[in-house]
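Quick question, first post here. What does this chain look like in 3D?
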Amino acid sequence: MIARIRHGVVPAAKSDEYVVYLNQTGIPDLRDTQGNEGVNILHRIEAEQAHFLLVSYWDSWESIKKFAGEDIQKARYYPEDQSYLLELEPYVEHYEVLV
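> Answer (accepted):
Ran it through. Tokens below.
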């Protein structure tokens, strides 16, 4: 199994609204992609910023390509993301899940 991790930061005041937005956009797309094994949203507040880690789990590199495109290292964004995120980080991280 492979974990795909995307980090994002939004203003703390928009944190709850961003979770709703994720559940309407990225989360359904992830779950509907063949080979997706699940997804978690991790969250923490630091001062006036809310940090999010979107962790999706995949059965293969090919399945990740179905979601992310040929360059799986590039982050995938939706048009409205820029109204929430303070920065559109260009890359994601991948880890093999051992346990």
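The beta strands are 2-11, 36-46, 49-58, 93-96.
The chain has a mean pLDDT of 96.
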